[in-house]
Every structure is written in C-alpha cells, then in structure tokens.
Write a structure and sequence with these properties.
By secondary structure, this protein is of the alpha+beta class. The protein is built from 11 helices and 6 strands. Helix content is 60%, strand content 12%.
Length: 491
C-alpha cells in the first residue's frame, strides 16, 4: 500500500499536468513594423489658409483623441439628428448586432458542451411481447419501465476543446469589430451623403440664379434687337445659352433626389414617407482642429484591422484543433437508474441499474486525412496572416491619401474662390459695358459662362473638402474605443 500511494500521486500529477497543456501554437499578434509617419514627405501641421465664408485653415494635432461622435465637429444639429435616427433604425446596424448576439450564444453553447459533463435524464415506458420460439417456451407480453440518469464527459487532455472554445471566442470578437466597422461605415455614409446633398442643392441654386440672370439678359437683348442695336444672331445665341443652362437643371434635380432617397434608406426610412431636414453647405461647419492618431496607434484603432486580427487568431486556434485531433481522446461515462416490469416495484432496491465506462479513441489510419487537415489549417493561418498585413497596408494608404487630399483641397478651394471673385467682378464690369455699347455680346457671353463655371467650381471644392474631412475621421477609426470606454464607465 505504501508503494501504491506514491505511484497514484505521480499518476495524478502527470494527468493534471497533461490537462493543463494544449497542443498547437499559442496566438500572439503579428509584430508589424509601422512607419513613424503616414506620408513619405513630412506633412504640414496646417493646411493653407482659405478666406471663404467660415472655411479656414485646418490644423492637424497628435495630442487630441478622436471623439466617438466625430460628426458633431461639423456643428450641425440636423446632421446629429439624422445620425441618431440612423443608429436607431438602420437595418444594417441591426443585422450586425444580431450577428454579434448569435456569436455570443454560439460561444456559450460550445462552452457548455466542452467544459461541463453531459447529464441526461431518461424515462421510458414500453409494452412488448417476446417470441416463444426464441427461448423454446411460451410467448410473453409485459410492460417495461425504465428511468435513469446518464453522465458522459470527454477529457480535454490535449487541449482540443480549449482550442475550440478559443476559436468561438475569436468569432465573438470578430463580430464585435465587424459591428464597429458597420457603425463607422453607416455614420460616415450619412455624413458624406448629407454633404453631397448640400453640394447638389448649392449647385441647383447657382444654376437657377444663372438662369434668372440669363433670362434678364435675354430680355435686354430682345429690346435692343427691336431697336436695331443688335443682330438676330445675338438673340439666338443668348437663347441657346439660356436653354443650355436650363438643361443642366434636371440632372442636378435627379441627383439631389437620389441623395435624399439614399439618406432615407441609410436612416431606416422609406423615401416616400421620410422626414428629414434639408442640408446646405452654409449650415455645416468645417472642423478647424483635426485630431490625429499616431501611426503606431492606428492598428489598434481601425475596426477592420482588429477584425482581420481576430480572423488570424481563429486560424491559429484551428491549427490547435487539427493538431489535437491527432492525439487520443478519452471519454468517461456513467449511468444510474431503475428498471422494472411494474410501476409498483420500479423504485425498489432490486430494480436499481447502473453502469460505469471509459473509452479511448486513438486514430491509427485515416488515409492521411488528419495530417492533411492540419496542413490545411497551417495554410489557412498563413493566408490569414497575409490578409492581415494587406489590411494594415490599405489602412495606412487610406490615411495617407486623405491627408494628401486635405492639403490639396485647401489650395484648390483658395484658387477657386479667387477665380470666382475675379469672374464675378469681370461679369459686373462687362454687363455695364455692354449696356453702354462699349463691348460685344460675345464678351458678355464669355463672362457669364466664366462666372457660372467659377461658382460651380467653388461649390465642388467646398464639398470635397467637407467629404475628405469626414473621410479622415473614418480612416482613423471613428473613435469607437472612446465610446466603449464611456459605456464601461456608465455601467
């Protein structure tokens, strides 16, 4: 007995040591070396100044964190209103939330099947007849009652079950980041669509103003034609120019209607019954201070990068599952209950039945199936690693592109604004000269067209600057981590 106890202790130590081990690689995030800056050339801390309405220079600062409600930086209550509506009613966001809940329930289910033993209660009542020919006697008809509790448990010695739980946990984390990505995409699309609507409305108003201007000029030319001061060609040219400008109006109205419809769909409303405010560029405020994230922080702040990392983590866990399948599986089982031919004696001592069992399954020959599955899992891990690196590269490209765009947007708007001011002054001067007969109609026509084009170009440049600002907030991750921290503190 004294020799048996040390052996038993040693066996238990080895057993529990094996249980604490898990085959397969331990996951660790890829250590990618990221650059110290987003662009190849040093980026200015401030864009060029723009003296046009409320638009001015934009400054980039790496000391401020991005707000989770970054759209409030546009200082538009109407924009805040429809984003709240979209976050509440968007089917896309609801689908992402449902996918997250499903993943969480799947994780609970697999934990329950692996961590805890399976316990099942069974109650049966049958009436059966035996054959007299089977036992060389008379046939017999009787009732048989059976009630029992069965327990079974597969020991996770080599960690295959733990790797399976780990894989399901990564699915939960992936869906959580997928939800954040859907949240960010929805809010960015609403902001961008609202800006596009404002731009189209401004272009429509500019076109209507130009039509009125050209209509007034046509009336003047027609009076001059009656007095013989101008030729019929001048009248026809002005009518042609007016008709051309009028032809630009329906496409703008079509695009404006499409933007309104898209905004309704993004906010979970039907276009025919949606109640939404109208947006104009002057109702939006261009953020002057742009909080930036350091390049080293971007990989932890972009939800698409974090989601890609969870796919890599899942692939790592799948390698562990495939490796554990090569090793033995031990299952313990037991049962206890009663069996009798009558209910009166069902729970008596003589009706007790029980069983204990243990099973070991060791794959010996599967035609190379298990080793091939493990090699497949390793290949899937390499694929996920490559896709993760590609996601990181694209994220840095997004930030670099939008930073460069914001720099050029400011210069473009300043040049467009100067061109508009010059074209407006030129048109006013040419109109007076034409009324006095000091210049030709062709000069007036050119001045009108130049001013119309300059005004439209300014609207395009302004809206592009607003859109690229929203794109920067989206490229930096949208500040979702701050919303999570705020929620955690509230709880």
């Amino acid at each position: 007995m004294r020799q048996l106890i040390p052996r038993l202790i040693l066996t238990l130590v080895i057993f529990f040591t094996l249980i604490g081990c898990a085959v397969g690689p331990e996951f660790s995030p890829l250590n990618l070396t990221v650059p110290e800056r987003y662009t190849s050339d040093p980026f200015p801390v401030q864009t060029v100044g723009v003296e046009y309405k409320s638009d001015g220079a934009q400054s980039f600062t790496f000391t401020e964190d991005l707000s989770a409600q970054w759209w409030t930086l546009f200082n538009s209550p109407s924009l805040d209103q429809i984003i709240r509506q979209g976050l509440t009613d968007s089917p896309t966001l609801a689908a992402a939330q449902a996918a997250l809940r499903k993943a969480e329930e799947d994780l609970r289910a697999v934990k329950g099947s692996i961590v805890y033993p399976a316990v099942d209660a069974d109650l049966q009542a049958t009436r059966q007849r035996t054959s007299g020919n089977a036992n060389s006697g008379a046939s017999d008809t009787y009732n048989l009652y059976n009630t029992s509790v069965a327990v079974s448990y597969t020991l996770d010695i080599f960690g295959g079950g733990r790797r399976q739980i780990e894989a399901y946990q990564t699915k939960v984390d992936y869906q959580r980041y997928a939800y954040e990505a859907a949240y960010l995409t929805l809010t960015a699309n609403i902001v961008t669509t609202a800006i596009q609507e404002a731009s189209l409305r401004a272009k429509k108003e500019a076109t209507i103003d130009m039509i009125a201007m050209q209509q007034e000029q046509l009336s003047i030319i027609q009076k001059q034609f009656k007095m013989g001061a101008v030729s019929k060609v001048d009248v026809l040219s002005q009518e042609t120019d007016l008709a051309t400008t009028k032809a630009d109006l329906p496409p703008l109205e079509k695009q404006l209607g499409s933007s309104r419809h898209a905004l309704a769909a993004l906010t979970g409303q039907f276009p025919g019954s949606a109640k939404m405010p109208e947006f104009s560029l002057d109702s939006l405020h261009l953020p002057q201070e742009l909080p930036m994230s350091l390049p080293s922080q971007l990989v932890r702040q972009r939800p698409d990068i974090r989601a890609s990392e969870e796919l890599l983590h899942q692939a790592c866990a799948e390698v562990g599952i495939a490796t554990a399948n090569l090793y033995p599986q031990i299952t313990l089982s037991g049962g206890w209950g009663f069996q009798a031919v009558g209910t009166g004696v069902l729970f008596s001592g003589e009706s007790v039945i029980w069983n204990l069992g243990a099973g070991l399954l060791q794959p010996i020959f599967r035609g190379g199936q298990l080793t091939a599955e493990r090699r497949s899992a390793l290949a899937a891990y390499d694929q996920a690693a490559a896709e993760y690196r590609q996601t990181v590269l694209e994220a840095f490209q997004d930030v670099a592109d939008v930073l460069r765009a914001l720099e050029t947007d400011a210069r473009t708007l300043r040049a467009r604004a100067e061109a508009e001011a010059a074209a407006k002054a030129t048109l006013a001067l040419v109109e007076k000269q034409y009324e006095l007969g000091a210049t030709t109609y062709l000069a007036l026509l050119i001045a009108q067209r130049d001013y119309q084009e300059a005004r439209i170009n300014v609207i395009t440049a302004r809206s592009q600057r607003y859109e690229d600002t929203a794109a920067l907030f989206q490229a930096l991750g949208g500040g979702w981590w701050n919303r999570s921290k705020k929620t955690a503190k509230a709880e």
